[in-house]
């Protein structure tokens, strides 16, 4: 985890300047998510980066807690939120397991472009379920590294060796859906805008 934190701290300002690669897909993901959100909801986003998505969703809910392992990322996020005058969003540094978060205290949890970066996605999904209220939703967008062709898998390995890419878990869509189902979620919606990632809305089963 320390290595990941250092990587994202070093990458924070470059990450903040990077444009969204596919604006149309990003806007569709926002729209799908906001169709579920309610004004009285309390939402958690883990792996929030510089907070851009959390800030967009803040207008649609009562409160958002946004977390990340990178202090540098969160410095940028807090500055952006202050400039936008958002009072219902707060940022905390840490992980799902290290932060003192109350069980069954969130109506929705967002894990966007983060599950494939975790050493133990099974433990993360189990923790998400624990934090959700009954019938709460988990929204995730995940890179399907296992489904990339050999060239890209080798390229990622080389970039990691050079210190230019973070750790990635080689998840497939089938494995991810099975992970969610086995953890006690019902997959309500899955959308694969391209071969390389899948967007899923899953509901906590009773």
From TrEMBL:
Molecular function (Gene Ontology), one example: methyltransferase activity
Documented EC number(s): 2.1.1.-
Keywords from the UniProt entry: Methyltransferase, Transferase
Methyltransferase domain ranges (all copies): 43-136
GO annotation terms (biological process): methylation
The organism of origin for this protein: Pseudomonas zhanjiangensis
EC primary class: transferase
Database matches in SUPFAM superfamilies: S-adenosyl-L-methionine-dependent methyltransferases (SSF53335)
Identification of the protein by name: Class I SAM-dependent methyltransferase
Domain of life, source organism: Bacteria
InterPro entries xrefs: Methyltransf_25 (IPR041698), SAM-dependent_MTases_sf (IPR029063)
């Amino acid at each position: 985890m320390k290595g990941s934190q250092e990587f994202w701290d070093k990458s924070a300002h470059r990450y903040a300047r990077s444009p969204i690669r596919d604006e149309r897909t990003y806007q569709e993901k926002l729209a799908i998510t906001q169709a579920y959100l309610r004004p009285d909801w309390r939402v958690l986003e883990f792996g929030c980066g510089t907070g851009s998505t959390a800030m967009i969703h803040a207008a649609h809910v009562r409160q958002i807690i946004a977390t990340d392992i990178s202090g540098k990322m969160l410095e940028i996020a807090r500055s952006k939120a202050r400039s936008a005058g958002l009072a219902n969003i707060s940022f905390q540094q840490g992980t799902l397991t290290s932060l003192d978060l109350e069980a069954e205290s969130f109506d929705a949890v967002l894990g966007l472009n983060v599950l494939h970066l975790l050493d133990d996605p099974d433990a993360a999904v189990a923790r998400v379920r624990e934090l959700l209220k009954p019938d709460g939703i988990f929204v995730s967008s995940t890179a399907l590294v296992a489904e990339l062709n050999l060239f890209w898998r080798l390229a990622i390995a080389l970039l990691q060796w050079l210190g230019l890419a973070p750790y990635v878990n080689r998840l497939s869509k089938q494995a991810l859906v099975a992970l969610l189902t086995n953890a006690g979620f019902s997959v309500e919606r899955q959308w694969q805008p391209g071969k390389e990632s899948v967007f899923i809305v899953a509901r906590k089963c009773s």
